[in-house]
Write a structure and sequence with these properties.
Blueprint (H helix, E strand, L loop, with lengths): L12 H13 L7 H14 L3 E5 L2 H11 L7 E5 L5 H8 L3 E5 L10 H7 L4 E7 L8 H11 L2 E5 L7 E2 L2 E2 L6 E5 L12 E5 L2 H11 L22 H12 L1 H21 L3 E2 L7 E2 L6 E4 L7 H10 L5 E2 L19 H9 E3 L8 H24 L1
Bound molecules: pyridoxal-5'-phosphate.
């Protein structure tokens, strides 16, 4: 029986060629032609004037907040439902993440709740394009402008998405990406921040390199970090960028097949995409209906037995011990999605036959759960 992991990187001859080239050149640390090429090409794709590469997506988040001057006593508004790195980056600054619930349709931060959560200490809104759906940046921008706040986007899961034709990367004051092994583009570990604010970009470059004055070696005006990406990782990313459109198209076809299946199923719901949005095809996300008669774990347990790996949706962060251990339903929409949502295997090198085999196993698992429920 073929086993299907939730994710698997797509690495081709081109990645190997560029990585070998970087190794043979001797430029394996954080200087080299692939780094410059990657930053230039990534900024063009994002539609911004700058891209600042980092060694992962979490450091990209911390770098942009640190460069924006966020520190102790400050508050940053973040969604309750996201990966923990979003809130951790705020905490690293000594600032406080203020959680608000997500919208039941887009699963992204609810702008009206953001407006209600602003206090005199609020400095920024950090929106997350959860499971590929861009947040409502038009409304968030109005709120941020009205209160003088920075608008930052965590686009770790939404590369290739867009809002009203504008690409993810250019929708906020600064946008962060992750190139972890399960993301849409990968180099193992890597990240990037895109922005069209030259002062913010310069500050990020300074802090990324230990705070060293770019014109004076070993002279450090501020305390910085070592958040640099390597030239070898950038070489892999240059290859991934060349193959990006083809890889995204393949992912999109896979996610569409899951969406069609769940839209036709009485037991599942497909995600809802706003009319002016292109959702990025990261990991296919399905939600078990409330009236299914059985819980998600029963279904994902059966899928696991059938060789199909899944991931549950994230826990609401305020429910985690690190962020207060509040009841899961303190943020009701996040709590509800967190209990019912799950991700299905989504990777570029999955064939059409694989997709059909997985959907058949999903169908069998749902039937099995239903039969078991009827017997009880
Ligand atoms: C993957 C991810 C990150 C950061 O990822 P790294 O593993 O540090 O590269 C941040 N936010 C979200 C929403 C993510 O999915």
């Amino acid at each position: 029986m073929t086993k299907y992991p939730v994710a698997r990187p797509s690495l081709a001859d081109l990645e190997e060629k560029y990585a070998s080239d970087a190794i043979r050149s001797g430029w394996i640390s954080s200087t080299g032609p692939y780094l410059e090429r990657f930053e230039t090409e990534f900024a063009v794709r994002a539609g911004t004037t700058a891209a600042v590469a980092t060694n992962n997506g979490t450091t990209a988040l911390h770098l942009v907040l640190a460069a924006a001057g966020i520190g102790p006593g400050d508050e940053v508004i973040v969604p309750a439902l996201t990966y923990v790195a979003t809130a951790n980056a705020v905490t690293y600054c000594g600032a406080r993440p203020v959680f608000v619930d997500v919208d039941p349709q887009s699963w992204c931060i609810d702008p009206e709740q953001v407006a209600a959560a602003v206090t005199p200490r609020t400095r920024a809104v950090l929106a997350v394009d959860l499971y590929g759906h861009p947040a409502d940046y038009a409304r968030l921008r109005e709120i941020c402008t009205a209160h003088g706040l920075r608008l930052v986007a965590d686009a770790a899961e939404s590369l290739s998405g867009s809002l009203r034709g504008k690409p993810v990367g250019a929708l906020a004051d600064a946008t962060t990406f992750s190139f972890f092994g399960n993301k849409i583009l990968t180099c193992g570990e890597g990240g990037c921040v895109t922005t069209s604010d030259p002062d913010l970009a310069a500050r990020m470059r300074l802090l990324r390199n230990q705070g060293m004055d770019p014109d004076r070696r070993y002279f450090f005006p501020v305390v910085g970090y070592n958040y640099r990406l390597t030239n070898v990782a950038a070489a892999i990313l240059c290859a991934q960028l060349e193959r990006c459109d083809v890889m995204v198209a393949r992912r999109r076809a896979i996610v569409d097949a899951y969406d069609r299946y769940s839209a036709a199923s009485p037991l599942l719901s497909a995600p809802v995409t706003a009319p002016d949005v292109t959702r990025a095809p990261w990991m296919a996300s399905l939600v078990l209906n409330r009236d299914a008669g059985f819980d998600r774990e029963r279904l994902t347990g059966r899928l696991s037995d059938a060789g199909v790996d899944t991931r549950p949706f994230f826990h609401p962060l305020p429910a985690l011990p690190a962020y207060g251990s509040l009841p899961v339903d303190a943020y009701p929409v996040s709590g509800d999605l967190s209990r019912r949502g799950f991700n299905m295997p989504t990777f570029v090198d999955m064939s059409q036959d694989d997709v059909e085999a997985i959907l058949q196993r999903l169908d069998d698992a749902l039937r099995g759960c239903r039969a078991e429920t009827a017997l009880r």
